[in-house]
Protein: phosphoserine phosphatase
Organism: Rhinopithecimicrobium faecis
Amino acid sequence: MKNYYIIDFDSTFTQVEALDELAKISLADHPNRDAIYHEIERFTNLAMEGKLSFREALAGRVKLLQANRDHLAKLVSHLKKKVSTSFNRNREFFRKNSDTAWIVSGGFKEFITPVVTPYHIKTENIYANTFKFDEAGNIIGYDENNPLSDEGGKVKLLKQLNIQGRIFGIGDGYSDYQLKESGLIEKFFAFTENISRLAVTEKADFITPSFDEFLYVNDLPRAISYPKNRILCLIVGDVPEIAAHILKRDGFSVRIKATFEEKYVKDVGMLLLGKGSVVTDEELSRADKLKTIGYLGNAKEHLSLTLCNEKGIVVFDDKKEKKRNAEYIPRRMADFINNGDTDQSRNFPNLQLPKIQNAHRLLHIHKNVPGIMAQINNIYAHNNINIVSQFLMTKGDIGYAVTDLNAEYEKSLIKQLKQIDNTVKFRILY
């Protein structure tokens, strides 16, 4: 049976609620705009939490909008910049699943269609409401015969469509949960990248903090090999709030603590330390998932760079204690996780790598010994792998090789690369 993916639009495919954003545009010069904004948001939240019927909320919001076609054009331009980060980086998934990835929304086609079609979503697979306009182009209502304009509209629509396949629902609202409650879909994934509603998450089969997570748990092709929301980023000590904001916005799972607590040692993937914080050799030796450390100060005095090399941990620090480094260092850490960049690292060869599309990037950290690159490339040749590009730099006893491939590969390739003598750490980036 085919898999079908029923995806919500507002606060799921995009980061925002489109009608709320439309109100900000259409009422920008209205003397009572703040009060009207608040009332529109209230209708939205009551409906999303299942406390008000969808039709009541929709009618209430549309009546308050005072919007026209010109406002809609501005809204579309705005929404194109507000596509959720994890959806934006997984365009390839939609290209490969253009027949079965559908948008089903209580929003309106007038703004949904131009936003999602650049992502290979077919117009015939977009199900949403439509506005009614007067001769001057003002919104005066909506098509009340559309099942999506009514309470339980998504359930009514799917019953009409009678899809023959396994259906997965992804959304942030109560109407998305109703699909699961009706028994029409296989599983419901509560999408929380933009907003988390307790009334929805407590009823979901899975909570998915990103579209990457959804693809990962269902073993589907994705832009990155491992969801960033599964990478624990621990911030310890006196670190400005902006650093946490940068890392959270990038999608990492951030925890802020006064000290490096024992319970985090074995699971931490990224560690950002305030000046004066210390990591012992014993803690480092057990931090097997740790990929990168950022230090707001001179790292050499507070952790062993030698041990970091032995474990393949990339360190970024702030020897000159510049104020901007509270932002710069977390960005360098994120660039390493996201793209493999080691530029400005304290202990690793400095590589600033190009971004690539439709390819795989493999990172091989090893001891800088003769013949190791020959072993790496012999394995690629033996597996008939076509290398798009390859980057290698060394620094002291560390070698760092980045290989981009444009073809699928067997899992045995990864096992062979990991088993090369003098391998320190291996990672599939995407």
